[in-house]
Amino acid sequence: DNAVKILWGETVRKGKREVGKGFVFPEIPLASVLKELEIAPDVTGGDALWTHRKAEDAEWYFVSTPKGCDFKGTLDFRCNGYPELWDPITGTVKPVTSTSDGKRTSVEIELPKAGSCFVVFRGDKQNSNTIQSLPDEMISSIELSAPWTLSFPSGWGAPEKLKITALKPWKDLNISNEGQAFSGTVTYTTDFKITPKKQGERYMLDLGKVDMVAVVSINGKPLRPLWAPPYQVDITDMVKSGKNTLTIEVTSTWFNRLVYDAGQPEGNRKTWTINGPSKDAPLRESGLSGPVKINTYTKVGR
Fold first, then answer.
1. Could you tell me the end-to-end alpha-carbon distance of the chain, in angstroms, rounded to an integer?
2. 256 backbone dihedrals φ, ψ, rounded to 5°
3. What DSSP character marks residue 86?
């Protein structure tokens, strides 16, 4: 009680209250307090979300997109130094386009929906781990149009094997109603050719639209999981000249199966939840919708 009285006084009143070497501002918005203290905002410029941590030799800002949106714009940081953009998924570090007036630094940032990054200021020195390279230039893009083989787990109303010529959500496949409501993991397989694989070229696999998580394997070798747009991964070290086999394991939420089971007699249901969707809820798009492309890049000026 005594500590409360020291901080707030006998009666909490709106305004600035001097306490020791600092001040207490009861019932005053934070923005007004910062203006009163002549403290500039830490980050301005757009609706991206962020948080800030200061380390011994660097300033770390974690930046993410607003819910359900992407972000492309310039953020102005109350920080000076050499900014770098760190990818929290791949661990890669790259320099970014920025300008500074000696007190604040403006950084151009582009993030896909559900994307995030670290913006790191390391004083006036460039990180020695940052790879300086010429920009890439796309020289070709091939859409994978060969038939796809889909493999479903048994016991869920879908065929164990299904061949299709066009990618589409599971709910739109020509299979049973129960199969269209499948929730879980489906494996997609197809073949493609690289003729020939050239020195210095980089091959990027772009899955297009995916709902929701994909694990890619090239010639039996798995790569990292892809769980947010853009669903792209570098396959340069995995592909070979000639025929290659692409496998994509796509996992959905269980929403569609819950919808299907809500319309079934209790004894026929395979899923249960306390508060699930209605049997009349529309099925969501799940699976690999594509288009799936292999984009080939080379360095500008090669």
1. 73
2. -65, -40
3. E
Give the count of alpha carbons within 13 A of 138, CB side only: 9
Q: Any idea which residue has 């997109």 for tokens?
A: 65
pLDDT band at 301 (very low <50, low <70, confident <90, very high): low
Asked whether the beta carbons of 25 and 33 are under 8 A apart, the reply is yes
Question: By C-alpha distance, which of 260, 293, 278, 276 is closest to 170?
Answer: 260
What is the tens place of the pLDDT at every residue in 149-201?
999 999 999 999 999 999 999 999 999 999 999 999 999 999 999 988 888 89
Q: What tokens appear for 57 in the block?
A: 């030799």
Q: How many other β-carbons are positioned within 10 Å of the β-carbon of residue 127?
A: 15
Measured between alpha carbons, how far is residue 140 from residues 191, 238, 245, 286, 297 in Å?
18, 18, 20, 29, 7
Query: Phi-psi category of 6—alpha, beta or left, where left has phi over 0 and alpha has psi -120 to 50?
Result: alpha
Beta strands 213-218 and 83-86: pairing type? unpaired
Question: 204: cis peptide before it, omega within 30°?
Answer: no
Quote the tokens at residue 14: 């709106």
Only one residue has tokens 């004083």, namely 123
pTM recorded for the entire structure = 0.76
